[in-house]
Amino acid sequence: MAFTTDTHIHSLDFSGDAISSMEEMCRGALAKGMKRICFTEHVDFDPHYDDSIPFDGEKYKRAIETVRQRYGGELEILKGIEVGEPHIYPREYEKVLQGDAYDVVIASVHYVILPMGIHWTGNEGKSIFQYAVERVYRRYYEDLLAVARLGGFDVLGHFDYPKRYLQRDAMEETLMAEILDCVVKNGSVIEINTSPLRKGCLETSPGKKIIKMYQEAGGRRLTVGSDAHRDVDIAVGFDSAMPLTAGFTVGYFQNRKFCALTER
Hints:
The protein is of the alpha/beta class and 264 residues long.
């Protein structure tokens, strides 16, 4: 049985990089046979961030109420947020957490600040591109560890996010293990994010290796989300995600509490 809950979607109304409106996302979810969706609109604090929309919590609350009135009889609609780079803006992050009530808070790193010094003749013969990829991943996981240590969130978003665009991995296993240990100790979870499959990657974010590391660290719970920014992408890749959930309790968050899914 396929998943009928998508725990990570965005709308044009509140996420500047999205294409479909809330109305379109709800209709798209119904067309895909979804029983439950969670809007996880971007909350970004950097005014120079690409496609950023200043987050308006009250407007978001009213918009959720509107789509619930229209589609609530057929579709359970949850209200979440995805906070970008909370470790850089801890005061703003804390203010958001103390504000309106949300069903789920996803914390993510979408960009890194990377001073790239390259030694042209060294680096053990590695290509400059591969060297750059490794630097990107190291800095990304350093920042993700800072987010994990900060805590306050329910879900750590798209664990190995750079591969969605770089189309390759760089395993920083020590940092990755520290991050996963923090997530488990904080009582948070990681998600299986299927968006890389739409970008040409051969696996979800994260893939089998990191999911196994999470399980070995004591992780027992997962969420599954498409990270859809347009209606046609809702639930795309869920068939690929299902085998990765073996041995885990898969669920969603409601009122910041983890709820196990029964439909699988």
